[in-house]
Amino acid sequence: MSKAGRERDKMAAPGSAGVVAALLVYVLLNCLKYDDNYQSLNVNELSKPSYMRPKMKFQLNKHFGFGKLALATTFVHPHHYYRRIKTHSEIKLNPQQSLALVIAVYLLLSGDIHQCPGPAASSSETPFSTPPSNNRSTSGNFQVHSLRTFYKVNQRTHPNLLIPRMSAVTTPATSTTSDVGWMKPTHPRNNRETPWPASSCQPTNSSTSKISATATPDSAGIRRSVRPPQYPYKLDTLNNIWTYPSNPFCRSPAAAKLHCRLRHQNTPTTWTNNNPHHWRNQKRGVDYRMLRSLPRVKAMPNLKIELFNVQSLSNKTSLISEHITDRQIDMMCLTETWHKPEQYLSLNEACPPDYTYLEKARVTGRGGGLAVIYRRNLHLTPISTPVLSTFECLLFKCRTEKITITVILIYRPPKINPGFFNELQDLLTTICATSPSTLIQGDFNLHVDTPTNCSAVEFLELLDTLQLTQHVKEPTHSKGHTLDLAITDTAPITNMEVYDLGVSDHKVISLELALAHQHKNTKREIYFRNLKNIDHAAIQEDIQKLSLPSPLTSVNESVDRYNSTLHNILQSHAPLKSRTVSFTRSAPWYTEELRILKRLGRTMERRLIKNNLTVHKQAYRDHQKLYCRALKIARQKFYSHKINSNTGNSKQLFSTIHSLLKPPTLTHSDASVSSCDRFKDFFTNKISSIKSNFLPTTTIPTSSENTTVPTAPRPLSEFTTTTQKEVEAILRTMKSSTCSLDPLPTALIKDNISIISPIIATIINQSLQAGHVPLALKTAIIRPHLKKPALDPDNLANYRPISNLPFLSKVLEKVVAAQLHHHLSTHSLYEKFQSGFRPAHSTETALVRVMNDLLMAADQGSPSLLILLDLSAAFDTVDHGILLNRLHTTVGLSGNILNWFKSYLTNRTEYVALGNAKSHTHTVTCGVPQGSVLGPSLFTIYISPLGQIIRKHNISFHCYADDTQLYVKMNSTPTITSSALQACLEEIEAWMAENSLQFNSNKTEAILIGTPHQIKTSSTKSILVSGHNIPLSSPVINLGVKIDSTLTFDHHIRHLSKVSFFHLKNIAKLRPSLTQSDAEKLIHAFVSSRLNYCNALLVGIPGRSLEKLQHNQNCAARVLTRRRKFDHITPVLQSLHWLPIRSRIQYKLCLLTYQCVHGTAPAYLSELLSLHATSRLLRSNFTHCLHQPRTRLTTMGDRAFQAAAPRLWNNLPQSLRAPQSLGTFKKGLKTFLFNNAF
Asked: Which residues fall in a compositionally biased region of kind Low complexity (predicted)?
């Protein structure tokens, strides 16, 4: 290198060092602290006179050892403008900080300093130099973004700094600049540049030129005044550049030497204006155009985990949800959630979108509770834990791509329990020995920061014994102790941080695990139609153009034309669009006011971190509590508006409330064709495996042809033609659910019923007359639904297949079902004790009959054995041949109708759908379609011979769809009864094997019912069903009611009280933002409906049991009317016109009695009652009284329906017992019971 080059480099280096120093000063200035009584240094205050600007001086020795930064500033008192205070601050730099400065200088000078076009001159000590004309570059040249960085820093002290425009072009021949402009520096908070018009005020080659404001014509011929650069810049007339001689950072010889060693040498090309971006090629270092681009590899992020003792999650749900989203937390571990078992409201509110949770509530006592909120793409598997009495524990495994880590979340109550260390040691010894990597965290309530604490010392010795490391070294509680801990064995923890969230006495522990997990915003392509903005008048006009199907066309052609035409109309008015969306979305209730509060909280948090003053800490905590309350209020208002806007939409109302009260339902994450095929294969293999077990191993004659079954007196061979009026009535009563196979949404069909109903009626009549079901109406979509939210979504056995059928298919089935029901009811072909899917029959009527027989048997001195049989996939294993034979022989269908049912059952296809993915189509060879209209009716016909088999053995039974109940009276000789029962069960099993049905022994239960003495003296302990020994149990769940051995229904009442209080507690949270009418709807939907379900069974039970339910009703009335808990409840119930619980039971029983008297009740209930009759004609014969049988026991016989119903009916006024309409009877009955109650 020549001597001139070295001199030039020596002169250029200090300017670059000044830039680096300015950057360092900018960072250090932001770390300086000032007294709160004076104004701190900010951008607005820096445009003051020069005597008020800060004077900075930076010193660094040549060995880059210790250095110091001095700052002298003059401030103005906030209350006395003419009072000036001079302050002096000094920051010393240790060798580590100096080394950081060296690295910063090296990085900046070696890779971020580029050339910038400008006047053709060399630079000595300024960053404004330009490419020289002697083909020698200088290190002080900057590209525009580097200039902006420098000016953003220095505009604090020099706000009037002007930046040369980058459109300046020079020519090597003349070395003059044309069209030079100036830009005002960019403000740090305003990313806009204000260009100054071009002028002739640029530097010239004259050594005597003076800089002043001149006006010269620009490119458009307009003369503009341009302000020249001001103090402290001056013109270096020797080199034609602007210099900054007052910069104190340009005097470091060490920085100049460092720059000389690091700078690269290159030869720039000639500056021309042919390519406006040619100046980018002049930057020092490597020419990146000559390098091949490498694929960008993004480092896998760590697994971010946080631990927080929330101290009641219910009042911090929205804040926790927002905190998880803002900090992008992968796993949020919460202790002391204070949630109760089966209470999911607070957890659902705290769970952001695309997150789910694991939870464990404290079963006994108050407080406690653990929860883990994590991303759905993480594979977390809960592990069962042993029974622990001294602490709570939530144990699970987290599987990543390369490693599986076991996580233990622990909460120990503050009270010391001597057995804590033994239980903890047993747990940790087992887990740490079998797990390759373990993370233990939680609130241990041990002062591990206190060396004299005996419990803490013993705890740390236990960790040391197990080779575990405790990583938290800072206080985690407001009192200054370390209670929340993070413990690992080999799990790599990084970036641990302890900070205060401001809403609890405990701080948050944030850490990262260096695990290879892949997190990215899940994106998918969705397809949608904009149905909200559709023009209903235009689409109605297009639908009116449809013509009726021709009688000469087949039903298949009519259906295809119907589907294609409506699809084209929908496509023209609401075309199918696609969009790629991400699952990350903000809460729908988040308002602009909340955003303002959030920004204010971030400002207060930064101030607290900067100053760490007590007053700032308290202000931040108060603001966080205020923000938490604001989030809660905004969420309540949102759901209140949603409930008010869906007053008449019960489906949307239940969906809204269930989203709050129920845990999130996990879905299968892999929505691909292969996943759909796996579901399809699993469902089909399950049916195949069941049917493969049906081997002809029995010779018992149990076929339907050998049993006595009723035969139809007149065969039914032709359908009745349906009318447009009947079709319109069916369309209005159907739900507005839409299948993806429908050509037009159901809501639009209902809006145009008068236009579409003639077309639908014509298609239906074509199908009925031809005895053929179109192929387009025999395709079903199977969507797997998880049976319970807590089940593993990766296990295919936990899913239930749900069929979705086209809307037109359901309308056709409703027409056929109505005619089939008329035929069955007219000729009494229904099974008498089958209550499923029949008008006027319900689970309550079935249970009333069964409980009546059991109570009367116990009243007569004999216990009864009740067996609840369950079938495996009963609807899916129905044999089509057997069903068609039964429709012909038992029901009497023939001719065209039988052909229609044969076409309905054969050649049916289905496929599994997950999102937009579909499986291959599968042909259904057995079963009746679930979700269809005719499926339940066909199944009841299929199992109708089962009743005749049970009657042969003199055993009572009752069926509700595929749920069968057998009950037998245990006589004085239980051996004979047991043998008859065993023979009946064997014959039932053989009949089911012949008819492709199978027992589910895992769900079959048995219970012995009677008085306490009868149960105690009974020798029956178990029964044998399908080769499995079924032990007697109590209680059992029968059609949603918990039944105990003595029929006291204590378990059922306790369960009702628990569930009702749970819903009342959740409704009470929404009550302040609901009107009374809306709150009453929620209470009737979630509380009153449960109190009224099967309440006819509770007649005659002790008053102390009914008091529990009455407390629930009283609580509901207080929540609705917002009365205090000590206010008298009777006036409240009276003002609401609510009947008490005992009166509600009497109301239900009298209503069933009215239906029995007038012949609208099921036959098995009507036969239990009879009118009062005398041997001679008396006046009482015309009072419509019922005969009341005699009973022995008040706790048994008096509670039976055939004894309690006549007693209540006869006590009614004669005006109510007289024949009248149902509506009149209900109104008079409620008035009578209401007057008696109050």
From this structure: 119-133
